[in-house]
User: What shape does this take?
Amino acid sequence: MIIQINSDSNIEPDSELTQKIDTDVADSLERFGDQITRVEVHLSDENSEKKFGTEDKRCLIEARIAGLQPLAVSDEAATFEQAVDGAIEKLMHSMESTIGKRDDQKWESAPTE
Assistant: This one.
């Protein structure tokens, strides 16, 4: 699984944050194994430096699953760490649902004896 971390022009994540995101995403999605080909994490500061807000850090995660359309989720929070954690949690729920539906369809369409 390839994990790519991107940010908007208003922020430059440090190596500690980048490593934490990479580890958290990899650990959380480990059970899906080779079903995921690529994960892109996009960080942005919705208000940039001009304005301040309590929920202005945004994390969007897009996961590409073999044989399915990409899944995208996002979360906004006061810190990037919180936004990433929220987006990972949403992605896990979405993947469980999507992969579960795909597996159910395979089961229903399997030939019976």
Q: What stands out?
A: The chain has a mean pLDDT of 86. The longest strand covers residues 36-45. DSSP finds two helices and four strands in the chain.
